[in-house]
User: Fold these one by one.
Assistant:
Number 1:
Amino acid sequence: MRQRKLSQFTFLLVMTAFLSACDDTIDIYDHRRGDAENYMIAVAHPLAAIAGRDILAQGGSAVDATIAAEMVLTLVEPQSSGIGGGAFLVHHDASKSEFETYDGREMAPASAHPEMFLKDDGTPMDWPGVALGGHAVGVPGLIRMLAMAHAEHGVMAWEDLFQPAIKLAENGFYVTPRLAGLLANDTELRTVPGTREYFYPNGEPLEEGDLLKNPALAKVLRQVASTGPNAFYAGEIAKGIAQAVSNALVNPTPMTPGDLAGYVAKKRPPVCATYRMHRVCGMGPPSSGGILVAQTLGILDHFDLSQYEPFSVEAVHLIIGASQLAFADRNFYVADSDFIPVPVAALVDPNYLAERASHIDPDKAMQNVRPGRPGRSAWNWRASPETEKGLSTTHFSVRDQYGNIASMTASIERAYGSKHMTQGFLLNNQLTDFSFKPTHMGHPVANAAAPQKRPRSTMSPTIVYDADREPVLAIGSPGGSRIAGYTLKAIIGVLDWDMHVADAIATPNIVSGGGPVTLEKDSDAEALKPALEAMGHKVRIRPMTSGLHGIHFHKDHMTGGADPRREGIVLGD
Ligand code: GLU
């Protein structure tokens, strides 16, 4: 079965390489791990890897390759991310030895309000119902953010970075098994005019191996390439987006060209924590990812994981405890810091995390994990509950020949986002990451919706540094609220157990946020269930489709890994 798929997919890639006029023959099973000296990209689709690798080979920077790869992903991995969505990018500038973070998160339009996810009777709307159509579409932030990063770190011309995606959109690319499988299983996408014609020609879902062209997207990319980001945020493209949201077949909701024109990408203060002599740095609010990773590792710093077998029950119990404590804080305190005061420094303060670590009993599960009082502040917020998703979103890691590193997670929220398309690209449903309930027992919820506010994310693009401030690891993942847990697994595998980054990525997923401990279905993790239950954990088993793509930097070379749960590869030189 796998053999059949393998050869078929290899064939597709040869053909794709032919179409995109490059000479690669790529078998994804041979490129799940990689080794390179000069530059590398680890990304969720082989065509994005080829595009990024080619830019790096021409002397492009990590940000240049990121732009080229993400434009290709918009086309070839449309279920996950694209120009109709948002992203967080963290960057290491080798010349200044500086870590920077860029926020391209979607923003609520002016029509948004705290009660927008409540029904007339005051109860929360149904999640899948409201994710469909116009209601949850945020103003896309990806293009503005990439333009900002390019202005600061681009080496090649902006226009050139769009050419691989434009060529593929015009010539076509072959549908992969994952894209075909998600199309076959989706019951809503085929009901939306515009989207239906693209993904279900003649009423049938596209199949693996079908050639798919997207001239409408090619046209948009050409305009953005030649005119710059304003082509997207003003004029015909912006008008088209606003109209698609306002006149959506399902849940039409006002969005105006002014909403698009008003979008601003932002640089945010980095969030870092010390872990075993390393400095782990990530994305601050409106993502909770950096705080979750920093808090969990800061708590685990009080235990010695390396004394245990990798991912043994003793170690897993500690990781779960630390992560549950971090999630309790995140649900309570974290949202868009432009709208509510998030006590970021207090949340990752080593003294506070030492106190949080004291809640963990090495032999027994905690019950009723509650948020702490970082900085002894009394806060008036209430926790917002978590929804579970995770078949969408994409993460990739890049290093260029100059030593710059980009680690970016991009998303349109759930698979195919709002399922509404305009001008060849899908629009996100990212506003469903707001809390549906604006208040809880009379107290405001930090992550309630508001005009121009950005919904809280879990996206965790991360760069780890050693004691000499040299980069060690770039990593991140898709996976909804499990993103931080997947990312932590890989960081711990590399730092505590000296695993090859590809092995740390492939190792079974075990995650706990607010709810029960989730073990990856059909993996070795299932065997931990009885022992964890005996310690008092509630355990369930689920498919867990992480999409980790990381690069580990050694003294004179680098190793990379792509998650075998998706279709990504590692390329470099
Ligand atoms: N919307 C999610 C977030 O920003 C990502 C979605 C996913 O990975 O499925 O945290």
Number 2:
Amino acid sequence: MKKITLPSQSALNHANFTFGVATSSYQIEGDRAGRETCIWDTFCNQPDTIKDGSNGDIACDHIHRWQEDVELISELGVDAYRFSIAWGRVIKANGDINRSGLNFYIKLVDALSERGIQSHVTLYHWDLPQYLEDQGGWLNRETAYRFADYAAVIADALGSKVASIATLNEPFCSAYLGYEAGIHAPGPQADAGSRRKQGRQAAHHLLLAHGLALQALRQHFAQSNAPQLGVVLNFSPCHPLNSSPEDLDAAEFAHQYHNLWYLQPMLTGHYPSVYERLPVEDRPQIEPGDMALINQSLDFLGVNYYTRTVFRANQQHGFKDVPATGEGLTTMGWEVYAKGLTEILLSLDSEFDNLPPIFITENGIATADVCDNNEVNDAMRVDYFQSHLLAVHDAIQQGVDIRGYFAWSLMDNFEWAEGYTQRFGIVYVDYSTQRRTLKNSAKALQQLLLARQSRHHAVEDIC
Ligand code: IFM
């Protein structure tokens, strides 16, 4: 079996570097009856939205199997578990708190903490309650204020029991894929001509939600032990197809539009300069004071990285992505490009003076896994983790402040528009029995992490 190894002096070996695994609520929880309907329930019910016609009604049945899953996480030897909270499991349509839903997360965090595992919580990983969508969803400014109220409820309930709270996961996907491209929930809300405007408006309200929630969280924790507060964004280095001025410009446009659209307002209070290149009718409505609200200080930035993207010039939109081709693509059709992770980390570090410490909050690969006799030989995933951990090591060596790494994902799960056709887990899930089996990648990470743990314990004993 392949191993994962790190240079012996690597910062990733230090006890203060956090290793974890990650999931999200809609992708694993199931128990549809225990929560309000969310936009993904509605979207999955529409024809031709999900590749295999599936939904998250049962998913990995995590709500009923969470104790088994906590044991699994603990067995892996990780320091931390990153998961998201389903807003509609915690706040009912009438605004009351759903006590049993909230208690689920309290019990989860307590059980993790009893095993010495930190909880890293994300408040919003795409499952907007349908009752808010019915009032306009992210196109309605009010949703941002409801998000801040929900954040305060979570702060009150989980408070200083958790290591970190991230407001949003990949708002780019919520706004761009959900509204502009329309391939994620809630799906197209307008004719093609108005979708870009709607995408930008949803993005602006997501940014506002982030700012208002951070403000509420800071106020809540003013007198007490605060978890680290931040946000999780997805990044992909944008490369030109060739070195023509048009393609170079397209790649820069895409970089600002995809990578900087959220981070720059959060860190500086301004949209990137390509904002000015958007036709006036595509720009979001911004109220006075919004940009200052969005510009809250961050304790950490969560970086999700999977692959790079290649762009060429396009008359109509300024840029167009060029899908990867050739050998060695993942089952998502994504290129394995580990040095892109070092590249984007260095580029963010040089672009922003006030870049907060970074956690790699998602990194992983979908492969065509088969469980044969309780064995899943996912050698490609082992190689992927190996090369990407070295890419993180390289970035740290070059001065980037990176505090942790979370593998995506703890287990196979509902991959949004791809349904259950993509397996991102280090643990294989047989959806007909819900049986979980450690893939070879999980065993390789486990070996690395348990060896690391025993070295830390040995050092503690000496001290
Ligand atoms: O599964 C998703 C996750 O929900 C958000 N980041 C990307 C992953 C893989 O597509």
